[in-house]
Write a structure and sequence with these properties.
Order of helices and strands: EHHEEEEEE
Shape: globular
Distance between the termini: 27 Å
Helix content: 25-40%
Number of strands: 7
Number of helices: 2
Mean pLDDT: 90
Radius of gyration: 16 Å
Largest sheet: 4 strands, mixed
Low-confidence stretches: none
Strand order of the largest sheet: 1-2-3-4
Structural class: alpha+beta
Length: 116
Amino acid sequence: MKLIDRTPLQDEQGNIGIVQRIQGTLKYGLSWYPELEAQKFALALLERGLAKGYTVIRNHTLGASGITVPLAIVGPGGIFVAHVTHLRGTYQAKGDSWGTISGQTFKPVPINLLTR
């Protein structure tokens, strides 16, 4: 697997310092750094599971739109996009809403991953 990492605010070794972490949090929101850490975990799993011939592009921004694609996996089977998040729990998509399931209760959450 080949990795093309376009994550902003990191040094050549892929580390993010405290000043860059604060800048990223102010620019991209509170979930920015935890999502980067979740991506590192997912990348370790992908590296073990994907054969040669696959390329993973991390945090690529799509031109002037400003939309960032967290993980794009390019390989013989096509192009796949994955949004890796740090959220934990049991979630359900119900129409256009996204929420947690607790017993038989559906509760919408503020971050709707379906619309993101």
